[in-house]
Amino acid sequence: MSNASVGDWNPNRNKNRAITIHSFKGGTGKSNLSANMALILAERGWNVVLLDFDFRAPSLNALFQMNSIKYWINDWLAQRCELNEVLVDLSDRYQTMGKFLVGFTNPSGKAINEMTMHSLDEEWQARVLQLVLDGKDLLFEQYGINFQIFDTSPGFAMSSINAILAADDPILVIKMDHLDIVGTYHLIKGVYDQTLGKKPELVVNKVPCSMLQNPEDYKRLKSELSLKLGIEIIGIIPCFCEVMENMGRHLFVKKHPDHEFSQSISRLAEHFEKGN
Amino acid sequence: MTDASMELRRITILERNAEYHDAAEQCFLVYQQTQDSDLALRGFRNLNSSIWRSNNLAEMRTGLSDLISRIRKAKETMKFEKDQLAYLEAVALEAEGWLAEPPDSEKFIQATECFIKLGELEHALNLITSLIAYLNPDKQIHWAQHGIEIATTLSPEKKDTYYLLLVEPLLLYEDVETKEALLKEIYNRTKALSQINNRDHLGNIAVLTGLDLIQPYRIQEVEIHSIRQDNVHELVRSLDKTTHNRIQGMLLNLLGTSHYRMAEAEAITDIRQELFKKAKDYFLQSVSMLERTSAYGELLRAYTLAGEGFLSIAELEHDFNQRNEYYQLGEMHLQKSRSIGGFTRLLQLRARAAINLGVALERLSWFELSLERRKKKLIEIYELQIEGRDFAQQTKSLQEAGYATMYASEVSGFLSDLETRSNQKRDWAIKQQKLSRTSLALFQKTLDKKGLVAALSSAAFACSKLADLTPTFEEKKALFEDMFLYGELAIEGAQKIIDPVITANAYQQAGNAAQRLGILCGDGELLKKAIELYDYAVQAWSKTGERNKHANALTQLADTFLYFSSLDFTVKETTRKHYLMQSERLHQKAANIYSNLFFFHDEGENYWRIGQIHLLKEDYHGAQEYFDKVQKSFDKVAELIPSLAEIYSVFSTFGTTFVGLVDGLSIIKRGNYSHASKLFKELASSLNRETDRSLRQLRQLLTALSSIAIFASTNDSKENKKAKTELERMIVKLTPDAYDQQLPYSLHKTIHRLQIFLIAPKLFFPPLLLDLPLKEKMIAMTQTRHLVRMALNMYQATADQRESVVKAPTEDVIRNYVARISSIIAER
Ligand SMILES: Nc1ncnc2c1ncn2[C@@H]1O[C@H](COP(=O)(O)OP(=O)(O)O)[C@@H](O)[C@H]1O
Ligand SMILES: [Mg+2]
User: Where in chain A are the domains?
Assistant: First the structure.
């Protein structure tokens, strides 16, 4: 696995979307979702960049079981290196058709501490936003990337706000939990609507199978939630014990491409493929 | 009888029955028929009286606004004489004055002058008694004198009541001399009058007032008991509700104050506490009376006294939770004083409220686990004391200024403790020293002996804080000598007063001074003195509710035994053993108290000291046992304060490992290298899974020691010798700083740049100096203890910092941020 040499790629298809995966609560499945969806998109021939923007609880590093990282996203943001030096090319490892590049965040206590020191520092955050926006242009325009996916920190975190500001498709993930629904409602109203002026789309994850026994149930859940939260629901993913059992060892969609979970993620990927 | 005269009779009966509201309405009704303006005026008088009958402040306020609007309307619709009109206007003015918040003294003055002009003397006098609380001191006295003059013109039965009513505002008057002169006058007049009027209870109250205020420290129990509450009831029965409540409140304040004074003069702790509680109950009753009036001056006094009462009770309370609750109640009442204080010009009371609120908050601040928050609180408290001092200085009240300055000094000391940057640390300590000297000078000018003793102890405390931060031997010594002097003076003063807490503190500070000076100069006599003083301190603290201070005195006493045993080289080995045993026993006692109080760090520290005693006796098994206890205590701290879990687990691992290390080194001394090597290896492997950096360093060190010791045990004489030299070199290197007298301060400078974990090994090493004379070892041990405390403070400060930055931004913060970066977005 070498650092990406992204210089000479041709954009194979005409599509550039930046997607953020965000939620009100932690543990809604953001990291799991972003990683698996990124992989599926790359397998289908899109050039994908996945970035770990959860500086409080970085988890992609563990999810992809990386053991040596030369530069972290932390280094890029602190301007100790360039963006392309951060991206690790995993296309060979996963045998994807498109390029599959991932940027990791340093999960060490020291690094987390350093990042949280900046968490309310507006100047630092504004610089990060500049870097992210510059990076976005660079990846789309010069390196032919089609999808940039940001896995973010839950709730009110400045780093997540930056990613959302840069996003074309801001996505919120919720689980079927009353507190999460209420919190998400306020997050949409208070932050997305009033402050950021963005309309997110919703993925409902970890839905208990008992709530999804026939096709009608999907419809009902969809209309009920979109009515409550005032946004569109683009995916409903059931809760699978197999997913929990397997996490941390490999990417689920790679190992079990035919599992219902993988199919749900595929459908989600299609949503973004179809979008403009 | 005509209709009109019938009506008039009805009005008179209503008035006699004090049904003023109905009487007023009746007057107005008859006025409609007769157009007699006297009757209308009588209606307004009755209306006014009816308002003050009320027992409820809100109801009174509605009554007042109603009165104003009815007077306004009447001025248009009814016909009045000139004087009558002037009277009505004055009544309306007074009502407006009461409705303003704070009450409007200008309006009161205008109204009063008008009443006097119209010959409405009683009304004027009544208003004067309220007016005074809202005036500047120079005007206060003018009106008080005026009031006395007016009172003299009234009939004898009314005179004594009004004299007494004037006492109330005078109690609040700031200038002590004038106040006392006036009170004396009132006292004499009332006493004489009450004999003529045959009203003993008034005489008694006068006695009480006079004694209480003119000779505040000499009040006799007999006098206090001569005034019973029935007397008060009898006095107020004839008055309207508002005046009733006011007088009742004032007398309850007086009663409470007398009990408070009696408590202060009581030597038996239980009785003292009983009396404080009684006083507090009187103050609370007074609060509930005065809450129904707008007598803010007296209410302020009642709340302040109640708050002070709770604080005094708390200091003597043994039950931990109960005590805490009393402090909270104290805080609550003093907060209330502070908010009411703004309504008045009573600066001395406002000073007291601020000062004592500061004290309550300071006591409560010890329960704050986050150092960052504690620091913020202490700064707030410091500012309260400065506010109190400024108020006190404006009224030239030396005593209050003295207390405020003294508490500000102490809080500066605590802030110096908490501060992590060495410059700021020293700045606070210097400030503490300056303030303590100022407060001492202030108390020397007063008759307050208790304050003086407290200030002396506090000055001693300031010296020790500054000495800790002073690098050179000479300066340190000079400071400790000053400290000792202050301590001795404090003890001398304490003989003349009765106050368990202040007395205990005097002994404590004197003991501290003797101990520190003794250690610094290696003077066994001083240490002997320290033992004696600490012994007294221990006894004195046990009489107060301050159990942690009791435990602290025990700890200090135990330590001093240890120092003494090691300093005095003439003592026999058996005597030394005896001292060590004594020390262990006392540490154990302290540990038990701390454990009950949930002060697990201190519990652990006492066990740690016992462990060290066992090390001194070269009893490694015993030491290990106590280090296990240390570990358990530290685990409990970690449970209580999660942010400290990491450091405490590192500390306790260190503790247990280093006992083994010392054991190993002693084995090397005995020449058994292979045994030592094996021990080191075992210790190293017990640290295999540790991730902490300093523990890993310790593991490396042990591994190195182990392999060198193996070489030292070989037969090859060349290798063998080299290894032995290397071992010696390593041991010396392990402990380079411990010897240094200046260590605490020099370390200060660097400590905040260092990771605590890098320092931790050094913290535990001083006792490793196996070949040092005992005295040096002991000194090293004290240093260690300081360092552990300091390091912990450092660590917790950074842990708090970490905690505080992890906080998420609020919606507002995000909004500001987005506004700020909108140009970045717009550019694209
Ligand atoms: N649909 C699902 N069914 C079952 N488990 C899931 C599902 N989605 C996520 N999980 C599990 O939930 C846990 C939290 O997921 P993660 O992606 O780390 O959440 P986040 O990044 O939002 O904190 C993981 O153990 C993951 O395996
Ligand atoms: Mg995550």
Answer: 14-274
